[in-house]
Amino acid sequence: MLDEILKSIVEMEEEEAIKKAKEYLDGGGDPQKLLEVCRDAMGEVGARFEKGEYFLSELILGGEIFKQIMEFTLPKIKGESVKKIGKIVLGTVKEDVHNIGKDIFKVFAEASGFEVIDIGIDTPEEKFVEAVKEHKPDIVGMSCLITAGVTSMKKTVDKLKEAGLRDSVKIIIGGGRVDESVKEFTGADAWADDAAKGVRLCKQLIGVEG
Length: 210
Ligand code: B12
Known about the structure:
By secondary structure, the chain is α/β, with parallel strands linked by helices.
């Protein structure tokens, strides 16, 4: 079933993909596995885009299909009245408008007991700084899927330093464009390219068993 869902998304069969995803969940399927498969499908859509086989219209439609599936899948992951263990200010960085992965990470983090303050997409460095001043989070999470966002992340870390706030927070970066070298370059404390791993790292960063 999951293979069929993946294929339907990659082939842009919108109605079919949504119908099968609903059937999978109605049959007791695992919502996290469903999201992982959707993400793999988006990886393939992205690869076809890169090869010139797909165009921007397919990126948009792929994103739309994923968002529709997310709408009925994420509520099944939300934790119920979990004890709060920490606070995260989360945003997609400046220049970058991708929000699907950020939104998934948010739900995973909330389900594990984090309070998440979502400051949106294409977020200027100053907005992160203001949010840290206002909300005093334990962690700042930055989502980044495109190369242009790497500089934005570094600038955000630098602005937090300038404002004297760097040592009061842990910083985690996530999304398809991050890895160990990006972590080193930006001066973040941790990186993750999947939501579950990201939540585990966040727990470790604040000294809660991950
Ligand atoms: C859908 C999509 C779009 C949609 C976005 C819709 C939306 N509302 O988000 C639209 C059509 C708008 C779009 C636009 C563009 N896109 Co686009 N897009 C994609 C695509 C196919 C899927 C992205 C996605 O949603 N993945 C699924 C999610 C679930 O995965 P994820 O984001 O990685 O998130 C997971 C983890 O990383 C983690 N996570 C995410 N954030 C965070 C944060 C923290 C703190 C933590 C801990 C974890 C975490 O949790 C998630 C769940 O596990 C990717 C291909 C790809 N392989 O990613 C290209 C891709 C990202 N896009 C790309 C490009 C080039 C563009 C455009 C420039 C195209 C253009 N010519 O206009 C524009 C850029 C606009 C901009 N300024 O941002 C390139 C980027 C290349 C690069 N290195 O810069 C990619 C990689 C495609 C490719 N292979 O070429 N895109």
